[in-house]
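Morning - magnesium ion inputs below, output right after.
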Amino acid sequence: MVEDIVIRDHVFEPYISREELDVAINNVAERINTEYKASKEVPIFLITLSGATFFAVRLLEKLSFTPKIGFVKCSSYASGMKSLGKIKMALEPTIEISGKNIIILEDIVDTGLTWKYLHDYLLKSGANSVRIASMLFKEEAYKETAIIDWYALKVEDKFLVGMGLDYGELGRNLPTIYKLKTT
Ligand code: IMP
Ligand code: MG
């Protein structure tokens, strides 16, 4: 039985199980494998720190090819549950992106602000193309128009922790997803 957990001042309840996540992440990996099997192009993967690292490990180990992998860090959330609405580039891409076809790995697409910012930033920096694979997609909160190329699961517009998602840097190491309990 999976139980509620407390992080700081809030209670979170179990939301997505390890099994459901694994199946959904494997599915994304298979779709990416199928798409790039027939193609000469090998995309490079850019993992967004810190949240996407957990998803990235599970996804990347399922790939049938060996792409270059780098990191990038933007920040939009402060330490609470509300987006600041402003994106900062905290760490520039750690590998050469000029002329490359990039797949961003994200933990979650919420309003889409981060995705739009990164997309435009990478194209402006000389990337040939920019796509995204996100673990989760909060479709109801999404305010942009660009498609999310791949996502493992759609989720409710609730604050989540686990599998890289944090509340004030806590909760990232939980192997499943929890949602804020509202009474
Ligand atoms: P967006 O720019 O509004 O799409 O937000 C994207 C970023 O906000 C993600 O990369 C996460 O770091 C963070 N975020 C969005 N929703 C949640 C959540 O429910 N829990 C924890 N972090 C979140
Ligand atoms: Mg993040």
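Note: The chain has one domain: 5-36+52-180.

O.
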